[in-house]
Fold this protein.
Amino acid sequence: MARLDRRRLDKLVSGFARVRLLVVGDVMLDEYLWGEVDRVSPEAPVPVVHVTRESMALGGAGNVVRNAIAMGAVCRFCGVVGDDWAGDRVIDLLKDLGVEVLGMVREEGRPTTRKTRVEARSQQMLRFDRETEEPISGAASRALLAAVEAALPGSDGLVLEDYGKGLLHKRVLKGLMTRAESAGLPVTVDPKDHVASFRGASLVKPNQREVEQLTGIRIRTRDDLRRAVAKLRRSLGGSDVIVTRGADGMTIFEGDTPPVDVPIAHSEVYDVQGAGDTSIAALTLARLAGASLLEAAVVANAAAGVVVGKLGTATATPDEIREFLPAAADAARAGVRSS
């Protein structure tokens, strides 16, 4: 494992600006109703939220794009939305970020994934989901693959963000992995329900719960985690794996070396929503900027430390990440020594 040097970590974060990233995955429209609660409804024992403002943001794979751009990278995005108002808004938000929308496919009759959250008292009170998990149509699949093929030239790496909303079904994944291999691009994956189709990926980043679901192994001990990831890596053909473990940070499984724990530096947490999107963006950009897996994990932990201190779907800038780097590096050094 590489030595953790502060100046080198800073340089890696600065290197994000030279990265051209392609993201493909399930995009969502995150809607927020912000308000205050000072009474209970007379109609039912529920709080009454007085809405003071509303906001919208890109969620899911769109949040990976938001974070990559906030971190300084050039980002392209390919995805599918419905031919509806929410799809219009997703495309508008991408344009606002300066992202080309030629890679966006619209499928008539398909609802754009839309999540509406009610936030009050610095916490989420309620969420409404409007979505489908049905696979995208054959026509949409072909259009998506054509868009990806057009976007691959000039890209340094590919992120596949699977939220299980029907975009990354097996036929699409086969086409994506084949095209990425032909282009010689490293692929980073945030998996959901299956991994065999991601075989050949450079790096796979599930959380611990997803590892349990993907392998059928309940993880209670470190040995359980090792067994589960070993099974996962066999399905992947030996891909490197980083397991995110919430408050316990990350564990790196690289090549034939023993796993390495990378703890987080504990900070005040307001909202963990979207932290996984921030992590995969930072991991991928750091790797493409020349980082080792340990260095990339430290940078990703610093970036996640930024966003959990904000309400709603948030992003982290290079300057904000740099502020968290010393604490993230210290926590990681302690973890490496104890591994």
